[in-house]
Amino acid sequence: MLEVQKMSVSYTGKQLAIEDVSFKIEQPGIIGVIGPNGAGKSTLLKAMLNLISHQGEMTFNQKKLKHFQKEIAYVEQKSAVDYTFPITVAECVSLGLYPNKRFYQRLTKKDWQKVTQALEAVDMLTFKNNQIGELSGGQFQRVLIARTLVQEAQLIFLDEPFVGIDVVSEEIIMELLHQMKQQGKYIFIVHHDLSKVVDYFDQLVLMNRQLIAFGNTEEVFQPEILAKAFGQQLIVLGGV
């Protein structure tokens, strides 16, 4: 069970980016975090992970974050990634193994086999020796998902993973995420494309600085509820 309790974040000490957000997730699944631009979706993820100053806390199985940090995989927005960093695809994926290593431990042959298997799963093995800067946006996003696979984390946080990527990459990633859900993982995805919400998510966190609604997708993804977050903006349901 994962619980977020009274999460608030303020910028410049006054303006609230998110205010008093609380919800509880009882079982593994894929959870979409949706809302209009500026709603605080990415801020919520960062606060949950203690990456920014905040009030409130996230607990997992009634334990505070410090007790399960190795169980967390976080993929931030692509705009925050340095594509010029001199690292190969295989080396990038191997970074997911280090949370479970001691600082002096080297990767073993078995570890590199895990890297190979993860790259095969995302159909990127032929690129293993390429520099990450040589990849398209969709290819690089698949590499980041492969890194998450080798980490074998229980809690996965993805911030806008489908922005600017190709359809094939998006389908590959979603198929893998559904497999990971079946393995008992909790997967949070900040997402903006409302036309795919019903197909992608088991539950939704609907935000506009405050929590507007939380629950099963079919319950939350209703015009009258969405309007509370998006106002009079155009709402796209089911691809229509």
From TrEMBL:
Protein name: Metal ABC transporter ATP-binding protein
Any Pfam family matching the protein: ABC_tran
Signal peptide from the UniProt entry: none
GO molecular function: ATP binding
Domain ABC transporter: 2-234
Entry similarity comment: Belongs to the ABC transporter superfamily.
Species per Swiss-Prot/TrEMBL record: Enterococcus eurekensis
Domain of life the protein comes from: Bacteria
Keyword annotations from UniProtKB, A to Z: ATP-binding, Nucleotide-binding, Transport
Gene3D superfamilies given in the database record: P-loop containing nucleotide triphosphate hydrolases
Record has RNA-binding as a keyword: no
